[in-house]
Amino acid sequence: MPQITALVAILKPFRELIVIVVALSSAGYAAITYFATAAQLADAKSELQRLQTTQHGVALTALQELKCNNRLNRELLRAELEEFRLTVLLQKTITDAAAIRSQGGPSVQNVLDSLSSNRDALAFQLQAAGQRKSAALRDLRDNSCSATT
Fold it and tell me: pTM of this prediction?
């Protein structure tokens, strides 16, 4: 304790000078930290903007992929419904042809010819629906939407 008292006694005449030095060094430190913080904030702001842009791009890509998958699922469902509808119509045509054949008669041949052409058209449409269904399934299995940008 006597050493601290001796030091205070020696520095007492320089008290105002010490206050000025401490005040100036504090102001200098505050200025340096202010500008360093401002630069860091500017860097952080630019990094956040870059991340937002990147995340926006990722979100857009994910949205496009989702839309593509949705479109493929709708195509698949449409093709399955069309295939079902055509199968039912084809079965009805075959059943009607068998019923008319069993009746016999002179006008039966015209009706059978009409049913035969209907059957051929339905079979062609059924084949096209099956191809659309296969294409949609293949695209979904191959995850073709992940390449969408």
Answer: 0.56
